[in-house]
Amino acid sequence: MGDDKDTGKIVAVNEPASVPPTAGFAASLQKLLKVLVLSTSVAVVILGSIVILETIQRRKLQIQNDPQVAAAWLAGVRYGSDCSLTPHHGLTTLLKRIGLRLPQVHHTLLSHFQGANGSMEVWLGYISHLTNQPRLVCEPVGSTVFYDNLGQSYRGFLDLQPGFVGLFLPGYDHAARTITCVVHWLPANNDAAKVSKPMRFEIKLPSASRKLPPAPSIGYSAVASQQGVTVGISHVRLSEALNGDYRNGQRELTFHLHTVGGAVWARNMNMAELEDDQSIPTSDAVSIVDPYGMNIVMPHTFISRMRSFVTGAPFTVEHASVWVAPVSGAGESTDVVKIVLPIKPTHSARVIPFQLLVRVKQDIII
Q1: What number of CA atoms fall less than 13 Å from residue 42's CA on the CB side?
Q2: Residue 231 backbone phi and psi in degrees, to 5
Q3: How far apart are CA 182 and CA 64, in angstroms?
Q4: Contact 301, 326 (CB under 8 A)
Q5: Per the domain annotation, does 364 fall within a domain?
Q6: For residue 333, is it left (φ>0), alpha (ψ between -120 and 50) or beta?
Q7: Are residues 105 and 233 in the same domain?
Q8: Residue-wise pLDDT tens digits, 29-70
Q9: Is 338 found in the same domain as 221?
Q10: Are residues 136 and 223 in the same domain?
């Protein structure tokens, strides 16, 4: 008999179970949903950031609109000797989103004023809503354009340019933290029948720290001696605000000066009024520094002797001459000044610098 072998017998082989189609689709869908949620979150964050940045920018521009006359905004603020401004490159797009159309501005707005270290210029942009009257001007609401958080008012000077107006301020009290300007707009032809509602713009000023000692520790007169020369300063007083040309200063600071063994030798003092050497110095200048370290003497001006209205002769009080300095940036906080005087000894060509700290009186008695 032959071998007892199974021939032709079918043996079952175990194979992996197949995944139901519905389970694979659910997994893919779950992955897709995760991607969509992530993408949506990213888009929301991006859009939210854009909205926040645009809101911040709108607040920074302080956009205001009077549908009958004009829309205006704070285009920028510049400080120091160069108050020129290049408008924000995205300004046209931002204004367009809120329904205001502004021609693209590619040029720099060049200030017409020659500023100093303590000066500033506030640039306002505008769009006229008046038919056939694209050029506007702004005027102060009240007697002055500017006032600070200390309650002090300042006169501004217009810098008219197409689509923009600069408001130049020669100086401000460096103890102030904010300055506000309130203006209304009207056509350049001064048509008083078409005046906008008042528009208020607030500027946060750069912070400044006091450099000079507190006033109670400083006397109302000071005397210093060096190398046989004695200099005395007293009766330092600050005038009320002036309303003349900005180049003549916002105020006047007067002081009594007495020298022994020498004379002031400075390019910004009226040397023709000195009794000694009549030649003109070319380098050193008198500076008057406020409590915050700023020289408040107006550049390109002269400190001059005070003269009698009756005789025209220079005032002399107890052997001291009375001098008047045009200043800008002085105010209520100017309670102490440091006066720096170049003094030329009588028998020497070498100039000696004197620095004297003096307390400032707020009355107007000379």
Answers
A1: 6
A2: -125, 130
A3: 12
A4: yes
A5: no
A6: alpha
A7: no
A8: 777 777 776 766 666 555 544 444 444 455 678 988 999 999
A9: yes
A10: no
Q: State the DSSP H helix or E strand holding residue 260, giving kind and residue range, or none if neither.
A: strand 251-260
Give the sheet arrangement for strand 120-128, strand by strand: 64-66, 70-79, 120-128, 164-169, 157-161
For 60-108, give the DSSP string.
Answer: HHT-EEETTTEEEEEEEEEESS---B---TTHHHHHHHTT-------S-
**Inside any domain, residue 123:** yes
Question: Looking at the structure, do residues 219 and 199 belong to the same domain, yes or no?
Answer: no
Same domain, residue pair 273 and 308: yes
Domain end, chosen from 174, 204, 234, is at 204
- Sole residue written with tokens 């009240």: 142
pLDDT tens, 233-247?
999 999 998 887 888
When pLDDT is averaged across residues 312-338 and rounded to a whole number, the result is: 89
CATH number at residue 103: 2.60.40
Last residue of a domain, one of 204, 232, 264: 204
Same structural domain for residues 169 and 219? Answer: no
Task: Find all residues with CB under 8 Å of 281, minimum gap 6, and list them.
Answer: 265, 266, 267, 271, 342, 344, 351
Q: Provide the domain limits for residue 226.
A: 215-359
Out of 214-218, 269-273, 298-302, 362-366, least confident range: 362-366
One domain for residues 333 and 287: yes
Best CA proximity match to 154, nearest among 187, 181, 133: 181
Asked if pLDDT for residue 363 goes beyond 80, the answer is: no
Provide the domain count of the chain: 2
Instruction: Tell me what pLDDT residue 141 has.
Output: 86
Inside any domain, residue 198: yes
Beta carbons of 121 and 115 less than 8 angstroms apart: yes
Query: Using 50, 70 and 90 to split pLDDT, how confident is the model at 101?
Result: low
